[in-house]
């Protein structure tokens, strides 16, 4: 179980990225974190494993206060938190297998990882996971030889190779086409269901979030403005998250586009008549 | 009615540069021409034209004395040539051994201390780069005495700056996302280096090293001029006794070596990258 209490992040530039964010994620729950760009979604999930250092508040994973850990203990905590990234963040010049095995780096001593002699159990697990994500035939290919969807599958396998207690997923579908996006989201959610793994998924696609998450948290300018079931995402709630002006501006922009198009059509007609 | 029918007066005017910009450009060109004229005057003022008029005859005379190359002298060149190649190769290896840790200390994203170690590493790199191999060799010959060792160290010390600078720039240009992902797995600093950074800079590193080796072959060929071993010593000796046919042969040998090293380095870089 993950519990975040009064989490606040102020960047050195003075920008307040997060203000008093609190929520708990029970075992097996998939949380969709939505909000406009710059709302603090990325900062929030990076504060959980302290890739970004929070300014105040606490993050507890199974009663371990992550915010208080020193570097060695922090590394041991990080290895139980799997992370999946927007642009896959695979080490491009390593093979698929090496990328998946890098999920074990927190568990093996340096010389074993350096010589690529991982324990047999880790290798067996990696093959099982590659099979699970449908890439067993590609184990020895280099990561940069794969397509976007395949790379994200490797990213998922790497995160699971860590034996995580929690998954942090940062815009997993932002670089993928709609069909692949759906497949990747389904895969992530299925895997979470299979092993009762809690997950926080940053996602800007509201429809995808509604379809796959058990619960939605809406962030707006660093504050939680919505926390509830996907069915609760009404027009009014979306307005609260993304802002009134955004919606009207979007409609206005669409209307302007339409008007401009109509004008162009008239102009063309006039020209035709003149000829 | 098409676009070309718009009357000229209504056609929008677009200039690549503003009026002031064009003026500055013309002024710049004028300045450049003036500088050239001034330099030309300065140069011709100090030239003794008698010698210049004589140049074709002098050159023809030199060539006639230097040609044909004295092929029999080759027997005495194989040893120094082998030394030259060894100086370049061992010097490059020495440079790599010193430059790699320096580059890691100097790159902003891998340095353990930005305030103390990074400036120190940068200073070492700049110091090495600012001194020519020939000067390094002069210094080292006076410290260690003449010989191959001084040559190897001179080449090595000069290579540190070249390899260190290019390598630390490559480290700084690595993709931060890949490093972040490795960090998120709970990896140690050493593991982040070996999984996140090394794979990203390895091709650049090989390219830099082979390129430097190629340069070092050329540089080590002249180190003998100051007594640091290699084929340059023979060149110096031959020049001193005006043995022009031997000089020609040495030049040809150096040329051949450089061509071969260039070919090897091109092949190696092609194979890696």
TrEMBL record, chain A:
Biased composition (Basic and acidic residues): 262-275
Keywords per UniProt: ATP-binding, Cell membrane, Membrane, Nucleotide-binding, Translocase, Transport
GO function terms (MF aspect): ABC-type phosphonate transporter activity; ATP binding; ATP hydrolysis activity
Tagged with keyword Transport: yes
One GO CC term, this protein: membrane
Pfam families xref list: ABC_tran (PF00005)
Listed CDD domains: ABC_PhnC_transporter (cd03256)
Domain ABC transporter residue range list: 2-246
Superkingdom, natural source: Bacteria
Region annotation Disordered: where it falls in the sequence: 255-275
Name this polypeptide is given: Phosphonate ABC transporter ATP-binding protein
Organism annotation: Rhodovulum strictum
Protein encoded by which gene: phnC
